[in-house]
From TrEMBL:
Pfam families: DJ-1_PfpI
Record GO terms (molecular function): lactoylglutathione lyase activity
Matches recorded under InterPro entries: C56_PfpI-like (IPR006286), Class_I_gatase-like (IPR029062), DJ-1/PfpI (IPR002818)
NCBIfam families per the UniProt record, alphabetical: PfpI
Protein's UniProt name: Protein DJ-1 homolog D
């Protein structure tokens, strides 16, 4: 299997686990991952937030780690990558206001390239207009946005993921094993024991 080149769209207050775990796991299996953020360059960092499920009506939020970017957003073109990964947290809320971010999401989808989005990452998919007639899981608070974008919200346990076509989505970081396995399947990555 040849290494795939994956673009990861991040921003300040991206969810800590949803950026750290996939970034490291995809590198571990031999893929190339470029983490980028609008208006930032390789070597700069974004702040992360830890969203935890502690029995309240919604998640709690705590400061996370600094996450180092390893590529320049200004130089990114969808044609240079095999797949797209969109972590959740608070970042998608404002990243969806960036027209280049939305163009990138659309370009990956129009090319039929694998797209993995978790938690609030669905906000980027909805804003980019790629959910019409499609199924998408996300953090339940994003269900109205998925539906308003013409998608069908898939309400699944927090440890599960959903694959439809080139899209793999999940409610939150507890789904990492299922979500990343689905993404690796879309990438054609096989792991043998």
């Amino acid at each position: 299997m040849a290494a795939k080149k994956i673009l990861m769209l991040v921003g300040d207050y991206v969810e800590d686990y949803e950026v750290m775990v996939p970034f490291q796991a995809l590198l571990m299996v031999g893929h190339i991952v470029h983490a980028v953020c609008p208006d930032k360059s390789a070597g700069e960092t974004v702040r992360t937030a830890i969203h935890d499920f502690e029995g309240d009506q919604t998640y709690s939020e705590k400061p996370g780690h600094l996450f180092a970017l390893n590529a320049d957003f200004a130089q990114v073109e969808a044609a240079d990558y095999d797949a797209l990964l969109v972590p959740g947290g608070r970042a998608p809320e404002y990243l969806r206001l960036n027209e280049k971010v939305l163009r990138l999401v659309r370009a990956f989808d129009q090319a039929g390239k694998p797209i993995a989005a978790v938690c609030h990452g669905a906000q980027l998919l909805a804003a980019a207009g790629i959910l019409a007639g499609r199924e998408c899981s996300a953090y339940p608070a994003c269900a109205p946005e998925v539906r308003l974008a013409g998608g069908s919200f898939i309400d699944i346990p927090v440890t599960h993921s959903h694959v439809q076509g080139n899209l793999v989505t999940a409610p939150a970081w507890p789904a990492h094993p299922s979500w990343l396995a689905g993404f690796l399947g879309l990438l054609g990555t096989t792991i043998t024991l």
